[in-house]
Amino acid sequence: MVIDLSSEQAGDESSFRKLFETYAKRVHEYIYFITKSEYLTEEVTQELFLILWRKRKDLRVVENIDGYIFRIARNLAIGLLKRAALDSKLAAELYKHSAKESDQIEELMGERTVQQLIEKAVLELPAQPRKIYLLSRRENMNVDEIAAATGLSRNTIKNHLQKALNDIRDYLVRNGYRLALASLLARKFFW
């Protein structure tokens, strides 16, 4: 279906409805691929179409509407995952919805299992990211303290911490946890 976004009518409700009907399913699948959470997918999809509705008059000048829509979707999904990792209320909401979606509720609720998995993931980290992660999480040192103790720059410390968190998250995903929940767990334990 071709949607004419060049005319004055491009900002009207029927054109927007056509845009929604054309993109809703594809956007939903794309966001779910990123978040692995039906709850987050619904939240991001709604937010995306609200943004598009607010900017509907500006859509006439967008040359690559596919790229534009999917870039916004990606940025919203990643932004929500990052916020979920830092916001305890959002994390609790995500956890609640993830648990509803998952048939692994008992496993998700067993902190011991999660802690054991994270311990195994930490053991598999390369030496430097592991050392920095442990200083941060077990010794409760902040970035400046770790930099002073190791002689490394703040940016290097941040990069090693990010690598450690990403590797732990990937380990959890490989062991059956959904991406969004794995991101939360990787940040929560030893924080």
How would you sum up this structure, described in words?
Residues 101-109 have low confidence and may be disordered. This protein has helices at 13-35, 38-54, 65-86, 88-101, 105-109, 111-123, 127-137, 143-150, 154-174, 179-188. The chain is mainly alpha-helical. It is built from ten helices and no strands. The protein folds into two domains: 8-86, Rna Polymerase Sigma Factor, Chain: A; 104-188, Winged helix-like DNA-binding domain superfamily/Winged helix DNA-binding domain (Arc Repressor Mutant, subunit A, Orthogonal Bundle), CATH 1.10.10.10. Helices cover 75% and strands 0% of the residues. Residues 19-84 form the RNA polymerase sigma-70 region domain. One of its GO terms (molecular function) is sigma factor activity. InterPro entries: RNA_pol_sigma-70-like, RNA_pol_sigma-70_dom, RNA_pol_sigma70_bacteroid, RNA_pol_sigma70_r2, RNA_pol_sigma70_r4_t2, RNA_pol_sigma_r2, RNA_pol_sigma_r3/r4-like, WH-like_DNA-bd_sf.
Major sheet characteristics:
none
The backbone outline, from C-alpha atoms, is elongated
Q: Give the helix level as a range of percent.
A: over 70%
Report the span from N to C terminus. 49 Å
Mean pLDDT: 76
Order of helices and strands: HHHHHHHHHH
**How many domains make up the 3D coordinates?**
2
Q: Remind me, CATH topology of the largest domain?
A: Arc Repressor Mutant, subunit A
- Fourth-tier CATH superfamily name of the largest domain: Winged helix-like DNA-binding domain superfamily/Winged helix DNA-binding domain
DSSP summary: helix tally: 10
CATH class division of the largest domain: Mainly Alpha
Rg of Cα set = 21 Å
Strand content range: under 5%
- Please identify, by name, the CATH architecture of the largest domain: Orthogonal Bundle
Low-confidence residue ranges: 101-109
Structural class: mainly alpha
